[in-house]
Write a structure and sequence with these properties.
Helices cover 18% and strands 20% of the residues. The protein is built from two helices and three strands. By secondary structure, the chain is α+β, with helices and mostly antiparallel strands. The chain has a domain of 41 residues: YefM-like fold, CATH 3.40.1620. It starts with a strand and ends in a 36-residue tail after the last strand.
């Protein structure tokens, strides 16, 4: 969570709003007292992980490389 004084926040308000929309929590203070907290209106949906998603669901047997019974004649 980021904390910033109102006098520092005003010149870069667009940047602070952009960061808040991406999930950051920003507290704007005045005279060292919290005044406003910026947070995203809707949480940003997280993408599911690509690697490891099927861990424990897929297995390869020891005879994976052995010829299949149906194709022994070939």
């Amino acid at each position: 969570m980021e904390t910033i004084d109102i006098n520092e926040a005003l010149p870069k308000i667009y940047e602070l709003l952009e960061n808040a929309s991406l999930g950051a929590e920003i507290t704007i203070t005045k005279n060292d007292l919290p005044m406003v907290k910026l947070i995203a209106a809707h949480p940003i949906p997280k993408r599911p992980p690509l690697f490891g998603i099927d861990k424990g669901k897929i297995s390869i047997t020891d005879d994976f490389d052995e010829p299949l019974e149906d194709f022994k004649d070939y």
